Amino acid sequence: MTLLHLFLFFMSIFLPSFFGSEQGPVARNAAKLQTCGQLTDSGNKVSRIIGGTVANTFPPWYVALVKPETRYAPNYSVACGAALITSKHVVTAGHCYLSPIPHKDDLVVVINLTDRCKRDGTILETADLKIHEHYHGMDFIPKNDIALIYLKEEVSNMPVCLPSKGRYAGYTGQIFGFGSTVARSIYPCKMMYSDVNIIPKKDCVKGMTLEMAQKTICAGHLNGRKDACDGDSGGPLIVQNKNNGAYELIGIVSYGDGCGRANNPGIYTDVTKRGFLPWVLKHIGDAKPSGSADNVVSHPTKPEKPTLDNSPSFAGIDYKPPPETRPTGAAMADQMTPHPNMDAQQSRREMQAAFQAACYRQKAAGMDFRM
Predict the structure, then answer these.
(1) Which member of 145, 270, 309, 368 is catalytic?
(2) Is 269 in contact with 96 (CB distance < 8 Å)?
(3) How far is CA 151 from CA 34, 128, 294, 307, in A?
C-alpha cells in the first residue's frame, strides 16, 4: 500500500466526524433540530400573558387540558396547560387532576389550540394517566407536582426537547398558556406568551422547605409585571439551547403567590437532570425521548389538599392562608366517601364534584384557589 493510499484511508475515517457527518456533532445537532424544540410561525398573533407583547410563533408541543363539560360548548374552558415530549407522551402538573381519585378522562387533551373561543384545536384520546406516586398538596404547596398523560395514538406535532443540563439560572425562559392576564380576570380567547428570567434559588426560597427548593425552579421578574397566572398550571417553561437553538422543557407551571407580584416569582416543577427528568424518562419507557436523554409507578396517593392552577405564572396555588384557617385534605376526603350503591363512574364524579365544592367553600372563606 502506497503512502497515498494510507493517507486517503485515514482521511476517510477522521474527516467525516470532524466536519459533521452522520457520526459528527454537527449532524447530531442538525438531527436534533429536526425532531424537537422548533417554534413555528402559526400565522396567528399570540398575545402574551402578564406584561408581555405580541408574538407570531406557536409552540407545536403546547397541549391544552380542557374541562370536559365544555368539550361541545361554544368556547373551551382551559383548566391547565401541558407539553408534548414524545409522539405519545404529554407532561403536566399533578395538581391539574385535583379529584381524590384522578382519572385520565377528568380533562380533555387538545393540541394545536390557539384560540379557545374558536375551538381551533384537535382533541386527542388518552390511554392512561400517571401522577407522581409521591404527589400531594399539603399546605397548598404541591410537592412532586408532575404527571404524564399517555396518548392512544401517536401525533405528528414536533415535541419540545427534554433538558440537556441541570442548571439554567441566568437564562431567559418562555411560558405559554390561556390563563388570566390579570389575577382573577376573565381568561383570554387567544394563547398568551411571556418571557421570564430563571432566578437563582437563593433569591426565592423564602417560605419553601429545602425539599421544595431542590425540586422546583423559580422564574419571573423580581420587580413583578411578567408572570403566569390563573389557568396556566401545568404549562411548559422552556429555554433555548445556546448551542443548537432548540427549545428545551425545564419546568412546569406549579404555584405562586399572586400574579406578577414584586419579589414573588413563579414556582415551577423542575424537569431538569437535577429534578424530575429521571422520573420522566423512567415513565415513558421505550418511547424515544425528544432531544435529551427513567417508567411510572402506580397512581398517586390521595391529595391532602386541593391544588389547582394557582400559579404566579401559569400555576398551582396562589395564596397561602394562615395555618389555623387551613382544613386538612384528609378531613375533606372523609366527607366524600362514595355510596356503596353507586357505580364506579358515578361515584368518581360525585366525589370530584364534592371535592371541587369543598375547594370553592375554602376560597369563599379567604383561601385563594385558581379554579
Answers:
(1) 145
(2) no
(3) 22, 7, 18, 24
Backbone angles phi and psi of 96, in degrees to 5:
-65, -30
The Cα–Cα gap between 320 and 305 comes to 12
The pLDDT score that the predictor gives to residue 206 is 67
pLDDT at 136: 84
What are the residues facing 176 on neighbouring strands? 193
Domain ranges of the chain: 38-371
Cα–Cα dist 54/31, whole Å: 30
**Is residue 233 annotated as a catalytic residue, yes or no?**
yes
Stretch 217-238: mean pLDDT, rounded? Answer: 74
C-alpha cell recorded at residue 97: 387532576
The architecture of the domain spanning 38-371 is Beta Barrel (2.40)
Half-sphere exposure of 133 (CA within 13 A, CB side): 8
> Which of 95, 132, 221, 283 does the annotation list as catalytic?
95
Q: For the segment 62-76, what is each residue's pLDDT rounded down to a tens digit?
A: 999 999 999 999 999
Nearest CA to 92 out of 143, 43, 31, 148 is that of 148
Q: 15-41: buried (b, 16+ CB within 10 Å) or exposed (e) per residue?
A: eeeeeeeeeeeeeebeebbeebbbbee
Q: What span, in angstroms and rounded, lies between the C-alpha atoms of 181 and 164?
A: 31
Where does the pLDDT of residue 285 fall: very low under 50, low under 70, confident under 90, or very high at 90 and above? Answer: confident
β pairing state of 89-92 and 78-84:
antiparallel
Hey, what's the cell of 177? Answer: 398558556
How many Å apart are CA 147 and CA 183, to the nearest integer? 25
Among residues 262, 264, 183, the alpha carbon closest in space to that of 218 is found at 264
CA atoms within a 13 Å half-sphere pointing along the CA-CB vector of 174: 24
Q: Which residue is it, cell 370530584?
A: 352
Contacts of 120 (CB under 8 A, 6+ apart): 112, 113, 114
**Contact criterion met (CB below 8 Å) for 128 and 103:** no
Average pLDDT over residues 184-194: 75
Query: Which listed residue (99, 164, 194, 233) is catalytic?
Result: 233
Give this prediction's pTM.
0.68
